[in-house]
Write a structure and sequence with these properties.
There is one protein chain. The protein is of the alpha/beta class. It folds into two domains: about 220 residues, Alpha-Beta Complex (Spore Coat Polysaccharide Biosynthesis Protein SpsA, Chain A), CATH 3.90.550; about 190 residues, UDP N-Acetylglucosamine Acyltransferase, domain 1 (3 Solenoid). The strands form eight sheets. Strands 12, 13, 15, 16, 18, 19, 21, 22, 24, 25, 27 and 28 form a twelve-stranded parallel beta sheet that branches. Helix 1 crosses helix 4. The protein is elongated, with a radius of gyration of 31 Å. The structure holds uridine-diphosphate-N-acetylglucosamine and calcium ion. The site of uridine-diphosphate-N-acetylglucosamine has 30 residues, from strand 1, helix 3 and strand 10. Calcium ion (CA) binds next to loops.
Length: about 450
């Protein structure tokens, strides 16, 4: 028997008041719907994930690609209508878990526990509920004699019902056949003129099906993100929990409230992170390294004993015992060797450096391969782009590039060569050479003295 998850992500997210479809909004640089997919996968509780898409569906599809199958909801007529769109993809026998796509804090444990509860009670429908102090905006759980009766949406609730603190998280586990039969009986006769999925409770109740709630003990996990303030609150909770776990694993954080670490980041012990750092994506920071202050690292691997200050590192790698910054920018597959010094205002793009490379100040290297023991002087650059194409610069071992040199690619500087300061090179340099490509200096002695003497005379 195949188990399905149906994720609802077709809505516009009107309350966000912005262009991006709600479920694509990032927390710690990862779209909220990805958290749900990852936690479903981690829970190992379902065999297939179906995502209902509609508003700006190509954005959601670009994020999730082939990790899920898709059902289209071209008109967003409500959550009940959204689930109905998945009918053709779901086999009749068995049951499904339904989750809203705007609930990024839900974790694998909750999914596992709720599904285990559903199986053990042999329920036809389990509604995951929780108790909150401020229930505003959520559907309220209506109970009578400890029996689940209905869910009433905020906009349809009486003043008395609005006082109820038990809310609908929006997660349901339900028998497939009964679900799709039941959805056909739902109407849009309510305040929002939508087909509410929540009405399935009333339908099941009237049909005397086995229904009950499963109460989630930690309500924050069920937080629904409806506007940008809620997004920031969810992000703060996530940030706090991740930082706590990381600090407890032996990472020092100075002023952790200013430090943001993504939930796929791995940080080894004895690392120190200073204020205002942002480490996200699939980054890995190895032991004994110092990061920050004010550093951004995304999808990058940082070796042991590295020191990085005030710098940006994207999709790159920094090997052991190297220092980066202040104010360096490594990007697009830069691979920085061991014992390098990448200093002030140095940008390195798609370049591999060997061991003991130094670019201490004001340099640009793009599309280059550099050997060991190379010094790249202040103000020197690889001229990798002619306006149409990009070309490679190859630099061998033990090369000294003086200050303010332009290496016009494609070009190769062989081992053990020196490039004179101020040179603009457009030809290869053979090994063991000194290359000078600049005009010679001319000193016109007493030039101004002679000039003023000749002025006005004769
Ligand atoms: C919903 C529940 C509410 C619950 C709350 C929990 C309903 C009617 N209400 O309210 O009881 O307390 O979630 O967070 O279900 N969507 C579609 N197609 C649509 C409409 C919505 O795919 O036509 C998707 C949205 O993209 C979103 C999810 O369904 O991911 C929930 O929709 P939303 O409008 O946020 O529902 P709430 O008003 O929060
Ligand atoms: Ca919501």
């Amino acid at each position: 028997m195949k188990k399905y998850a149906i994720i609802l992500a077709a809505g516009k997210g009107t309350r966000m008041k912005t262009d991006l479809p709600k479920c694509a909004y990032p927390l710690l640089k990862k779209p909220m719907i990805v958290y749900i997919i990852e936690n479903l996968t981690k829970s190992q509780s379902v065999d297939e994930i179906i995502t209902v898409v509609g508003h700006k569906k190509e954005v959601i599809k670009n994020i999730l690609n082939s990790r899920v199958s898709y059902a289209d909801q071209d008109q967003q007529l409500g959550t009940g209508h959204a689930v109905l769109m998945a009918k053709d993809l779901v086999k009749e026998e068995g049951y499904s878990i339904i989750l809203p796509g705007d609930m990024p804090l839900i974790d694998d444990l909750v999914i596992k526990e709720a599904m285990a509860y559903h199986e053990s009670t042999r329920n036809d429908l389990t509604v995951v509920s929780t108790f909150v102090d401020e229930p505003d905006g959520y559907g309220r759980i209506i109970m009578k004699n400890e029996q689940l009766q209905a869910i009433v949406e905020e906009k349809d609730a009486s003043e008395q019902e609005k006082e109820i603190k038990e809310i609908n998280t929006g997660i349901y586990i339900v028998d497939n056949q009964m679900l799709f039969e039941g959805l056909n009986l739902i109407s849009d006769n309510n305040a929002q003129h939508e087909y509410y999925l929540t009405d399935i409770v009333k339908v099941f109740k009237s049909q005397k099906k086995r229904i009950s709630t499963f109460i989630l003990k930690k309500p924050f996990k069920a937080m629904g993100i409806n506007d940008l303030y809620a997004l920031s609150q969810a992000e703060a909770i996530l940030r706090h929990n991740i930082n706590k776990e990381i600090m407890r694993s032996g990472v020092a954080m100075i002023n952790p409230d200013t430090i943001t670490i993504g939930d796929n980041v791995v940080i080894e012990e004895n690392v120190t992170i200073s204020p205002n750092c942002y480490i996200t994506g699939n980054s890995h920071i190895k032991k004994n390294t110092f990061i920050g202050p004010s550093t951004e690292i995304h999808n990058s691997i940082i070796g042991e004993n590295v020191k990085i200050q005030h710098s940006l590192i994207f999709n790159s790698e920094v090997k052991d015992n190297t220092t980066v910054g202040p104010f360096a920018h490594l990007r697009d597959g830069a691979i920085i060797g061991t014992k390098n010094r990448i200093g002030n205002f140095v940008e390195i793009k798609k370049t591999i450096t060997g061991d003991n490379f130094k670019a201490s100040h004001l340099a640009y290297l793009g599309d280059a391969e550099v050997g060991n023991n190379v010094n790249f002087g202040c103000g020197s650059i690889t001229v990798n782009y002619d306006g149409t194409n990009k070309y490679k610069t190859l630099i061998g071992d033990d090369v000294f590039v003086g200050c303010n040199a332009n290496l016009i690619a494609p070009i190769q500087i062989e081992d053990n060569s020196t490039i004179a300061a101020g040179s603009t090179l457009n030809k290869n340099v053979p090994k063991d050479s000194l290359a000078i490509a600049r005009s010679y200096q001319v000193n016109k002695e007493n030039y101004f003295k002679n000039k003023s003497k000749s002025n006005g005379k004769k």
